[in-house]
Amino acid sequence: MNQDRDRPIYHYLPAEGLLWDPCAAMFWQGRYHLFFLYTSWEGSGPPRRTDGYMYKSWAHISSADLVNWDGHPNAIDRGQTGNIFLFNGIPTLIYPHPDGGGASCIATNPAGDLMSWQDEPRDPVLRHPVQGPGLFPDNNDVTAWQQGEWCYALTGTRGTPGTGDTQNLFRSRDFDAWEYMHPFYESDRRWTDAKDDCSCPDFFKMGSKWMLLHFCHQRPSGSRYYLGRFEDDRFYPETFERINWPGGNIHASRTMLDEKGRRILFANLNEGRSMSACLESGWHGVMSLPVVISLAADGNSLCYEPVAELQALRQDHEQLVNVDVAADTEVPVPRARGDCLELCLEVEPGGATEFGLKVRCAPDGSEETIVSLTSEPSSIQIDYRRASLRDDLTYQDETRIQAAPFDFKQGEHIRLRVFLDRSVLEVFAGDRRYMAQRIYPTSPEAVEVRLFSRGGHTLFKRLSVWKMGGDLRRQEGA
Q: What mean pLDDT comes out for the span 410-418?
């Protein structure tokens, strides 16, 4: 496996096969449990429905430290994106019926070990009467929670044609008889398109607000969220923001709340390779790093921070201080060579219009990925136009520059944290932006790091570098 220069080292992925949505997550009895959609490619290939849809199981992994992950038996053999919650103290899974049709299923774990699940997918417990032909019936992702004596469930990702994304609210006291209540929220054309959907819903309290985390298939696709009020069994979105930005790879996010009160986000870092390239390598998809999300001081956006436990992966620390990079120049950093790194930069812009670092650089300049801040417009960018010389990549955005708004002032102290893991790049700009990109350099020598500044000088007050991976122990496989 380690001969595959694209395959990550310290991010989680199964030994083989397809990793898809992280469909449920829970901190339970001292461990972090994560379930994700998975299909093995061993044997005769993945099982399929009569319409060609590839069935996916709910693979189950757990960790005591968010670094080392143990594999467990599949929770569900065939399912789609749902969620896990407690109902009357019993761990419960809700998930769409594997054969579609707008129906959802329940599985329970009376033993309380998250290992033995009782379910009967042939007899759906919840049918979606408002989701019929023309209302995207193939996508009925679902989530649920307990409130008082009721189990509330959200499913159905779109409203009537032309009205955009939504969810529909149901409730039941016993999982047997379900009452359809009403559309959960009204989509707003200021923020989303009439063809957008609200897939992979995850609804929870976030500080003083409520948050509806979801995924949109409409391009530019990816994870995003609403923040707002939850009153009288209805959600009133007040702000909207993307997590994934056009060209990025953060898909189908899922969260859990741990015993420390941290809301931890996981996502599928989707591929940029063609499916034929993935099949040839034997694997597809990577789980993101665990990211703590919290409500920003303005109450209208999120803060992002990689979990502190990741510091256990650090080794061979190197540090540079007060590197002043002149206008329109770049400075190589020989002590930061590598393809599995964490880099932490503290920067003071001094009039530059663009500044940052280049990673996975080939010595001849043929390949490089640029992480930069720009002043006009004010943004954080990942420029992957020259990340790879391969001709089998299938990025959605042909511009190959991922950009997100990021306001800063000249002379302001800015912190960037960059995680490299072979084909995975994750970037944290302060605590205000989290971005991810899949990159696939071809040259084994594409491991150089360079600092640069354009249009003015930039003071890199500190650059800390760690090789990442260490003595990483995990049981891969699902």
A: 90
What is the CB neighbour count within 10 angstroms for residue 254? 26
248 has a pLDDT exceeding 50:
yes
Q: Give the H or E element holding residue 324.
A: strand 314-325
Q: Nearest to residue 456, comparing CAs of 329, 351, 357?
A: 351
14-18, 42-46, 321-325, 469-473: least confident range: 469-473
> At 154, which helix (H) or strand (E)?
strand 150-155
Which domains occur in the chain, in start order? 17-306 (2.115.10.20), 314-468 (2.60.120.560)
Of 437, 436, 428, the residue nearest 304 (C-alpha): 428
CB-based contacts of 148: which residues, under 8 Å, 6+ apart?
A: none
CA distances from 147 to 32, 86, 128, 150, 304 (A): 23, 10, 21, 5, 28
pTM of the model: 0.95
Q: Which two tokens stand for residue 468?
A: 């990442």
Residue type, position 42, single letter: E
Q: Which of 394 and 3 is assigned the larger pLDDT?
A: 394
Residue spans of beta strands (DSSP E) within 66-135: 70-76, 83-87, 90-96, 103-108, 118-119, 126-127
* Mean residue pLDDT across the chain: 91
Q: Is the pLDDT of residue 100 over 80?
A: no
E strand intervals along 353-446: 354-361, 369-375, 378-383, 401-405, 414-421, 424-429, 433-438
Q: Which of 440, 198, 239, 453 is nearest to 350 (CA)?
A: 453
